[in-house]
Amino acid sequence: MARLTSAWSGRDVKFAARHERAALSCAHVAHYAYAGGRSSFSLGAVTVRSTVALFAAPAGATSVLFFSDLASGRLRGFPVVTVLGFGVIAYSVATGITATLGMSVFSLLRRFNLVRWWSALASGAGIGFLVDLAFGATLRDGVGIAITSGAGALSALIFWLVVRPVTAPNQRLERP
């Protein structure tokens, strides 16, 4: 057995060395050393869940916007094909916003271990608000901003529901 030392943590980890040699290796330079066993964090699960969330989350925002337009009567008189075409365009725009802003905010929240349902709702509402302002809404249009912020919050909540099994628990809340 050999010992693998993390360069800055000062902790040693035992690992099986190749060719039955035992050595004390620094993790910073010992690229040939490998740790036995399964990894505690699977990158494949993160990638698959993030991809599913990336395409599932915009469906919530698109649905909220569709039903709000349907309830307000803005879709009256349009053929079904036109409404579906605008739905595809809205879904594509929402997917782009999720890929750029949503994934960036998720990565930032995950880095600070703040991925919770409430942080997802708040960040989604904030992104929805900013996107609505970017598309030309004014602060006087309170109902439209509230609907778009709600669509962003629902989209972020759907994203959180898909991705949450891979997020680490909050270390501060764990008891020894």
Main sheet: strand order: 2-1-3
The run of helices and strands is: EEEHHHH
Structural class: mainly alpha
Q: How much of the polypeptide forms β-strand, as a percent range?
A: 5-15%
The major sheet is characterized as: 3 strands, mixed
* Morphology call: globular
Helix amount: 55-70%
Distance between the termini: 29 Å
Number of domains: 2
Figure out the total of helices: 4
Which quaternary structure do these chains form?
Answer: single chain
Walk me through what this model shows.
- The chain is mainly α and 176 residues long.
- It has two domains: 1-37, no CATH class; 43-166, no CATH class.
- The protein has helices at 43-72, 80-111, 117-134, 142-163, and strands at residues 2-5, 12-15, 24-26.
- Strands 2-1-3 form a three-stranded mixed sheet, with no helix packed on it.
- A hairpin with a 6-residue loop joins strand 1 (2-5) and strand 2.
- Helix 1 (43-72) crosses helix 2 (80-111), helix 1 packs antiparallel against helix 4 (142-163) and helix 2 crosses helix 3 (117-134).
- The chain is globular.
